Amino acid sequence: MKLFGQQSHGMRFILAVAVCAVLGAAVVLSQGPPPAGPPQGPPTASPQGAPPQGPPGAGPQRGAGGRGGAPRVVRKQVLLWGEFTGGGAYHESVNNALATIYRIGRESGLYDAYIRTDPQFITKQKLTVNADGRDWPVGKNLDSFDAIFFYGQREIPLTQQQMTDLVSFVKDDGKGFVSAHTSFNAFARFPEFGEMIGARYDGHPWGSVEGPVVVLDENFPGMKEFPPVFTFRDEFIQVKDFSWESSRVLMNLDTSKFDMANPNVHRGANDMPQAWVRNHGKGRVFVSGMGHDSAIWDRVDVQHMYLEAIKWVLGMTQADATPRPKPAAPVAPAAVK
Prior knowledge:
Layout: H1 2-30, E1 61-63, E2 72-74, E3 76-86, H2 93-108, E4 111-116, E5 128-131, E6 134-137, E7 147-154, H3 160-171, E8 176-180, H4 191-197, E9 200-201, E10 208-215, E11 229-235, E12 239-240, E13 248-253, E14 273-280, E15 283-288, H5 300-313
Parallel strand pairs: 3-4, 3-7, 7-8, 8-15
Antiparallel strand pairs: 1-2, 5-6, 9-12, 10-11, 10-13, 13-14, 14-15
């Protein structure tokens, strides 16, 4: 009897194991075949060339992400260059200008901005910097960017080769250039810079005053934020070596409200451009004299104008830059002294 009890206990254990095996197999079969794994072989190479672009002004585009990663956001690259090392009156507003243009790019998601207060990136050459007994490569140059926002003045230290590369960046490469306030007072020793932006600085005859500004092209991007005629306080710039036949003027002063008898005035009535655009070779240039005081860069209309300017020079928006003739001179007497 004892032997029979041991055999009965063993049979029960074997039966239990068999039942568990059958149940486990049933569970596996009920789940279906395992999902197919990733395809074998090398990944398909992405096409060469520029990243995919969406419709003009559509914001950042998304490229393919890495394995299991989120899609990579592709944005335009803009260099914010502010420099006053060449002398003249330092403009405190350059700080707010660079910070503002950086911020609106980040908030809009339209471009990545890089702030520099030196001309190191203004070259197409591959640069290195010696430190700690070795040469370190400089990570960026003009080839890294799609446009430049420039706020500077006077004789900024730049070599002839750097200026040649800068002009080629716009003229030959089809990149963009936005010039703010005093910028056409820069690089007097380089005539090619004046040719690129379409003018040279010729003083500010009235200092910082309040006066009427006329929008000549309300359909151009960035102009709709302003009324057709609006009162504005700024250090209004006077230009020389400027031609209405080679640039499309967006804003002009109503000189009937200014003292045109001022001996520092060198232009005629109704001939004080304050913002204009032009094509230079394959590239686009936007110039505005606005921005002397820091508070100007806090204005939503001015911020919108410069954002739209950057979008236009980047090719995100399209607009007519064909030059138009100077409007008829006003007849009202001067009023601003």
